[in-house]
Structures are given as structure tokens and as C-alpha cells.
Amino acid sequence: MLSLLKRYWKVLGRPSTYYSLGFLTVGGFVAGVLFWGGFNTALEATNTERFCIGCHEMKTNVYAELQNTIHFTNRSGVRAKCSDCHVPHDWTDKMARKMQASKEVWGKVFGSIDTPEKFEAMRRTLAEHEWKRLKANNSLECRNCHDYDYMDFTRQSPRAQNAHSGPLARGEKTCIDCHKGIAHRLPDMAGVP
């Protein structure tokens, strides 16, 4: 095995006898563009609602719940899809989130959430992971659509005005602190202060 690696390294280390440096450079560039385009296309395909609800765990549980909320149907016609709330827009944050989401694929493949009963048993754990992530990034995904600077406090209830102009404005709280359960049903919160 070691001799095979040494032989390949030797081939890679010497100049090409058949192709010019320009051809190899252009060929490498074209291959890189094709790889990058294919990679981004696949990455964006995993951000579609169709992909997210492709497994029955999501379609029959959280997606069904989302359909009854203001984030799905409202008077303005603006609708949030799964990736709007669960995948950051910035590339580095998106890649980190995709790596975290591989655990969800693991749960699908190995059946830890493949029935409504198993999903319900894991709901609080899954929700707490999302709340922790949103708390850590200052509810970045919420702020992609809901910009604090454009809030019209005169059209909010007194309770919302106090919350938005108080702890939220001072950076003591973030969106998810008060808005848990806004798009999905809350898990059993027994024992939470």
C-alpha cells in the first residue's frame, strides 16, 4: 500500500509529459467550476421545502403544524419555508448548520424519529437543540425577515411594545426567548420554570 502511494506521489510530483501547464491550469479551473456549481446546486436542493418534507417524519409532524400558523398563511402572502427558519443565509453558517443537520438524517436512517410516537418522545430534545442554536446566533434566521429597526411599535400590543423596546432592544433577550412555539407546537414543557 505504501509503495503504491509513493508511486502516485512521484507521478504527481513530476512535470506532465503529455499536457501543457496551460492546459492543466485551464482544465483544473473548469473542473473546479463544475464541482463548485454541482456542490452548490445540491446544497440548494436540500434547502427546498419539497426536500424537507420528503420524509414522513417532517411532513406529518412539524410541516402539518406549520400550515396552521401565520408563517404559512397570512394576509400579505409572504410565507416562510423550512430553510428560512432552520438554515442560515450566510455560507459559512449554512455549512455549519448542514453539518449539524446530518444528525437529523442519522435519526431518519436509524429510525429514532420514524413514527409519530418516537417523534413526540424526542420533540422536546429536538426543540431544545433548535432553541439553543437560535439563542446562540441571536435569532439570526428570525432577523432575516423581522428587522428590529423597521418594527412599528404603535401597531403592537402594549405587552409586545414593552418586550421589544425593553429586553430585546438592550440585547438581554432574543426572539426565541419569547416566541417558542410560534411555528410549531410546543413540546411538553413540564418542569421548565
TrEMBL record:
Heme 1 binds at residues 52, 55, 58, 104. A menaquinol binds at residue 82. Its cofactor is heme. Heme 2 binds at residues 85-86, 184. The chain crosses the membrane at residues 21-39. Binds 4 heme groups per subunit. Keywords: Cell membrane, Electron transport, Heme, Iron, Membrane, Metal-binding, Transmembrane, Transmembrane helix, Transport. GO terms for biological process: anaerobic respiration; denitrification pathway. It comes from Rubrivivax gelatinosus. Residues 15-189 form the NapC/NirT cytochrome c N-terminal domain. This is Cytochrome c-type protein. The keyword Electron transport applies. Belongs to the NapC/NirT/NrfH family.
